[in-house]
Amino acid sequence: MFLVALAVAGAALAFVALALAGFAPADRLATVVLLAFGGAALAAFVVASLIGGSLRRRVDQASRAASRYAAGDFTRSADDWSDDELGAVARVLDGAARELGRRIDDLSRDRARMEAILGSMVEGVLVVDAQGRVQLVNDAARHILRLGRDAVNRPYVETIRHPGIVEQIGLALAGQQPPGVELSLTRETSRTLVGRAAPVATTGRGAVLVLHDVTDLKRADQIRRDFVANVSHELRTPLTAIKGYTEALLDDPDDAEARRRFLEIIHRHAFRMERLVKDLLRLARLDARQESPEYAPVDLGGLVRSLAADFEPAAAAKRQRLTTRVEPAGAPVVTDAAKLHDVLRNLVENAVSYTPDGGAIDLTAAVDDRSVRVTVADTGPGIPPEDLPRVFERFYRVDKARSSAGGTGLGLAIVRHLVDALGGEVTAANRAEGGAEFTVVVPNRL
After folding, report:
1. Please, are residues 349 and 414 in contact by the beta-carbon 8 Å criterion?
2. What is the DSSP letter of 419?
3. What is the spatial distance between Cα 140 and Cα 60, in angstroms, rounded to a whole number?
4. pTM tops 0.85, yes or no
5. Chain centroid, CA 242 distance in Å
6. Which of 118, 125, 363, 410 yields a CA-CA distance of 20 to 30 A from 319?
7. What is the pLDDT of residues 335-371, one digit of tens each?
8. Burial letters for 412-425: b for 16+ Cβ neighbours within 10 Å, e otherwise?
9. Alpha-carbon gap, residue 423 to 258, rounded angstroms
């Protein structure tokens, strides 16, 4: 391009020289020099314009590419960078930008994956840097430690108020590996946590804290301990009685009246042990889901009347009034008759046992196309409100007024398991006019 411009300028000068051939030598020289400078300037302008336009277009291309990169668009550019030095530099920068974009996408996917994993964890996770500032905290840790959204980038000693957790993180930041420690929250003493902190030295020293909520495990362990203790007690009591009266019979076998009385006591305690063992075995089967429901049409009215007839002698001995009602009478019901019978039998037996002499027991049932609702209400002493949530636990005892009637302490636990097997729900409440009320709702499998 530059050579073309010089040729044009030379031709112009030659033309001018021919045109000035008739002038004086001095004048011709001055004019030629001026025209030569003018032609050179014109040629330089033309060359500069051509080169500048091409350079401007390529700078615009680079500017557009930079704008795309700034906006997060790292796709391959459609521009032609040419083959000169500037184009080579532009191609290298474009490739580097696209590689950077790929790595940013990989980091974004990894971060999203990490946040999804941490967000779905039931364990609390908290990460602090070498300066003790919180860098990451998942939702579980926020809930356990009652942390706000502003906890990130703040010193952990300012955001965490539990001294045991603060000590764990401090030891980890010092490079130690502290053992897990069992903690109780200040605001929720019923919750039990296990905190484990460990140092992090991959990108500068820091620490990570993991909090495990073991409240349910502790509660289950306590229930297991109570269960073993209660079974031992329930078995030891009749066994002690049987052993004592057997020794009395051996010491004085000739007293017929005493022998008969002792044998009746032994029989009663043996029956109590047999019933306890049967209830324990049934609970074990229900826990293992070995009693699958067998649905069939049920005469609910007949079932309720037969239950009332079974308990009529016991109720009459205590001058209790036992009433039944089914609405609507004769409504079709499809459920497991044996399991529903056992549920109602346990509830009515409890009502008869805990209702004082001269009291009343109402057994009512309501049926529709979707469910069967049965209520057993009595006029006994009721249940203390603090004990209502636990009455369906195995061997759980309330006050002496409701534990003096005997029994194995497993009846309501069996009721709950049977109702669960039927896909229903059982609740306990106190009546406003006095007494307890148990309500069973099971699906009507029409």
Report:
1. no
2. H
3. 51
4. no
5. 51
6. 410
7. 999 999 999 999 999 899 889 999 999 999 999 989 9
8. bbbbbbbbebbebe
9. 51
